[in-house]
Design brief:
- This protein is of the alpha+beta class.
- It contains 7 helices and 21 strands.
- Strands 1, 2, 3, 4, 5, 6, 7, 8 and 9 form a 9-stranded mixed sheet that branches. Strands 14, 17, 18, 19, 20 and 21 form a 6-stranded antiparallel sheet that branches.
- The radius of gyration is 25 Å and the shape is elongated.
């Protein structure tokens, strides 16, 4: 079975610079290949001017890195910046600037990464070489810049696994956002982080795939609808109290209301990336919560249920209007699923339309919602996972967009 070297990149601050010039030095949200190569070269004692050995090291391994999502943390990754006044800064044409320049530099704070390295059979530097170097580094390793020391030991262990993803899954916390060129995904970016030693500070472009795999929480709540909660904006504010440590500009959950529409006693089903906590509100009580990680397979068939707001935009009037005919509503759902899954129009049950009334800035409005029940067949598991997490269609703050699936 293949073996993978597992490393932990954890520090108060990290800096993984992108392609830029001296006056602004941003950081990616994840370790770059050049940064990882530099860290390993420091452990091995390879001089930064020894391009032959650095090239040999770069050709020895492939990797995947995961931004760990730790559900026990009550804080989020953020960025800070500082500035330096520097002389002879490099300009776009490559020449030195004769004038002093203020250089702003960006740092990641409060984030940990798990790194899985796979070594090629013909590699100059083997798994054993790197393990020994990481355990007893020649130079002090750091996280992108010298001002970013490690707060935990690099070495986790050697993990046997069938794939590089399985190796990451075996290391706590077992979930997060994966950045790699080894696993294909619908989400990909172009990045210039592959060192080219034919010139000074030259980097080649490559494609990097991003896979979001996060532990999810499904929870049930008992709700008593007081008169002020008839306005869905107030209901949304109440539900937000279940996530006291989340920033208000980012919605951390999707939800739907179940039960009789005219009843004051309703059940709320909620999907979130963060574990909810019971609120102090007397009319909202958490009754059950379960953690899970969605795992789908291509060709797998699932039953599904969703309440959504199928609309189209009128360009002339710049407003959204609901689809009325069932055929249009089903076609809208097909477009939303895109390449994630395929649905059979003949096996979809359309529930009765329910209108949600609201008031905002003194003006009244209405949202037309439709319930769908049916069966889908998975085409692209990663894309379906992403849709499950972010929801489908508009009006998510009104209880729309939560896709519920079950095995059949």
């Amino acid at each position: 079975m293949p073996e993978f070297l597992m490393l932990k990149l954890a520090g108060v601050m990290q800096a993984w610079g992108g392609h830029t010039y001296e006056d602004y030095r941003p950081s990616y949200n994840f370790p770059t290949r050049s940064g990882i190569e530099g860290l390993l070269a420091a452990c091995l004692g390879i001089d930064r001017d020894d391009h032959t050995e650095q090239t040999a090291l770069a050709n020895s391994f492939s990797y995947a890195v995961r931004a760990d999502h730790d559900t026990e943390r009550t804080y989020q990754m953020r960025k800070i910046s500082d500035f330096h006044t520097i002389m002879e800064a490099r300009k776009v044409d490559g020449k030195a600037n004769p004038n002093p320049v203020i250089s702003r530099r960006e740092y990641l704070c409060d984030q940990a990464f798990t790194l899985a390295l796979a070594f090629k059979p013909e590699a100059t530097y083997s798994l054993e070489n790197i393990v020994n170097a990481v355990k007893k580094p020649h130079y002090t390793p750091f996280l992108g810049r010298r001002s970013c020391p490690l707060t935990k030991p690099l070495f986790i262990g050697v993990q046997e696994a069938e794939t590089i993803k399985a190796a990451l899954d075996a290391v706590a916390p077992g979930h997060g956002t994966i950045y790699t060129a080894e696993l294909s995904s619908q989400n990909r970016i172009d990045i210039r982080d592959y060192r080219d030693f034919t010139g000074k500070r030259r980097f080649n472009k490559r494609q990097l795939y991003i896979t979001v795999e996060q532990l999810m929480f499904i929870s049930r709540w008992q709700l008593y609808l007081t008169p002020n909660l008839v306005n869905p904006y107030n209901l949304h504010k109440l539900l937000w109290q279940a996530f006291p440590n989340m920033p208000t500009e980012r919605r951390p959950f999707l939800f739907r209301l179940d039960g009789q529409p005219r009843s004051r006693f309703r059940e709320v089903l909620m999907l979130s990336r963060t574990e909810p906590v019971n609120t102090e509100a007397e009319n909202l009580e958490l009754t059950a919560c379960k953690a899970f990680r969605p795992e789908f397979q291509q060709g797998q068939k699932l039953g599904f249920k969703i309440r959504a707001n199928p609309v189209k935009r009128l360009k002339e009037e710049r407003k959204r209007v609901p689809y009325i005919r069932e055929e249009e509503q089903i076609n809208w759902l097909k477009r939303q699923l895109q390449t994630a899954a395929e649905i059979d129009s003949k096996n979809i049950l359309i529930e009765g339309r329910q209108d949600i009334y609201f008031k905002k800035d003194g003006k009244a409005g209405k949202i037309a919602t439709v319930g769908y029940t049916g069966m889908l067949e998975i085409i692209e598991p990663t894309t379906l996972n992403e849709l499950l997490q972010k929801g489908i269609g508009p009006a998510k703050a009104f209880g729309c967009g939560l896709l519920l699936v079950r095995r059949i």
